[in-house]
């Protein structure tokens, strides 16, 4: 197993790299060279209470994440093109736009899977450019992915422990951190010991969210966390995301479920063909003619007009 690749550790459950496998992903997620792919866990009933923020919602905040003129190309195609944005600490910031707009590529550039060809990225005053994913994660950036990858024969708790090694050195500490993360998303107790292969789509999404939280991030990058959820499941997930944000975690979320995003996000950044075409409060952004033409469409605007009024 390639030890250089194994260091690409984060609390995530997907590594966007050719030739990756679930076995190598388990090893890299521990963030420790030479760690076995599966290791015994010392059982303990003790859990940790996550730290919370005292910053009131709506208070003026300094940028936690800053991108200046970020570009990334694949051959002649610019997936992100001169993107500049600021994410204020303590907020929920939505990234929207049509398929192929460069949203996931932007996340890949932020958390180190891809290096920008041009531009600067900083998190809490530290440059992220050139850092590997495990190093970005250790700075305090967690991430989920569009497609959930679980270890189906392992329990929910064991799946989340994989992400907890970013913030823990010993097995017992990792398990405590994992269990605390499961409590935050409502999967503790009996569900923590269920086999991951039997989970519903909602439970898989929650397990992945817990795995990201187990690294104790200051910033969460959520890539279509609401995808595939029913109406009631969607409401539950929105409540959990808001609660995590209230606990002091800044959130940047990519999502196509616009009615949910209108309720959740405090600010939108809109990408189209890799370029930032609009930014601001959601109620203003969705009325922007460029956004309507590129993404929402006039029919969506007509249906939403009574809600936005």
For the largest beta sheet, what order do the strands appear in spatially?
A: 6-7-8-3-9-10
Low-confidence stretches: 1-55
Number of helices: 12
The geometry reads as: globular
For the largest beta-sheet, the strand count, sense and barrel status come to: 6 strands, mixed
- Average pLDDT value? 83
Helix content class: 25-40%
How many strands in all?
Answer: 10
Percentage of β-strand residues: 15-25%
Summarize the helices and strands and which ones pair or pack.
Elements lengths: L2 H4 L15 H8 L33 E12 L2 E12 L3 E5 L6 H8 L7 E6 L2 E2 L5 H7 L1 E3 L12 H9 L6 H15 L15 H13 L5 E5 L7 H16 L3 E5 L3 H7 L2 E6 L2 E6 L1 H4 L3 H8 L1 H11 L1
Helix pairs in contact: 5-6, 5-7, 6-7
Please characterize this protein's 3D structure.
The strands form 2 sheets. A 6-stranded mixed β-sheet has the order 6-7-8-3-9-10, with helices on both faces. It has 309 residues and is of the alpha/beta class. The longest helix has 16 residues, at 231-246. The chain has helices at 3-6, 22-29, 103-110, 133-139, 156-164, 171-185, 201-213, 231-246, 258-264, 282-285, 289-296, 298-308; strands spanning 63-74, 77-88, 92-96, 118-123, 126-127, 141-143, 219-223, 250-254, 267-272, 275-280. Helix 5 (156-164) packs across helix 6 (171-185), helix 5 (156-164) packs parallel to helix 7 and helix 6 (171-185) crosses helix 7 (201-213).
């Amino acid at each position: 197993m390639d030890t250089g690749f194994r260091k690409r550790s984060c609390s995530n459950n997907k590594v966007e790299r050719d030739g990756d496998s679930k076995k190598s992903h388990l090893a890299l997620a521990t963030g420790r060279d030479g760690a076995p792919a599966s290791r015994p866990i010392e059982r303990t009933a003790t859990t940790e209470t996550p730290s919370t923020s005292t910053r009131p919602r709506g208070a003026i905040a300094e940028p936690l994440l800053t991108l200046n003129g970020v570009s990334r190309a694949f051959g002649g195609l610019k997936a992100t093109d001169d993107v500049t944005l600021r994410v204020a600490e303590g907020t929920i910031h939505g990234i929207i736009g049509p398929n192929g707009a460069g949203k996931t590529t932007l996340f890949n550039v932020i958390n180190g899977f891809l290096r920008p060809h041009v531009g600067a990225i900083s998190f809490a005053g530290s440059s992220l450019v050139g850092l590997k994913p495990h190093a970005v994660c250790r700075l305090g950036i967690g991430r989920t992915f569009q497609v959930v990858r679980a270890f189906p024969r392992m329990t929910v708790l064991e799946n989340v422990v994989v992400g907890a090694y970013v913030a823990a050195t010993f097995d017992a500490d990792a398990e405590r951190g994992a269990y605390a993360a499961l409590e935050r998303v409502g999967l503790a107790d009996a569900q923590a010991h269920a086999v991951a292969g039997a989970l519903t789509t909602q439970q898989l999404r929650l397990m992945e969210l817990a795995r990201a939280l187990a690294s104790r991030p200051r910033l969460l990058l959520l890539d279509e966390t609401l995808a595939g959820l029913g109406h009631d499941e969607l409401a539950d997930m929105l409540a959990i995301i808001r609660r995590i944000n209230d606990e002091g975690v800044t959130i940047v979320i990519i999502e196509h479920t616009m009615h949910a995003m209108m309720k959740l996000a405090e600010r939108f950044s809109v990408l189209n063909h890799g370029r930032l075409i609009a930014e601001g409060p959601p109620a203003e952004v969705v009325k922007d003619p460029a956004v309507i033409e590129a993404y929402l469409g006039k029919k969506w605007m007509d249906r939403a007009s009574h809600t936005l009024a």
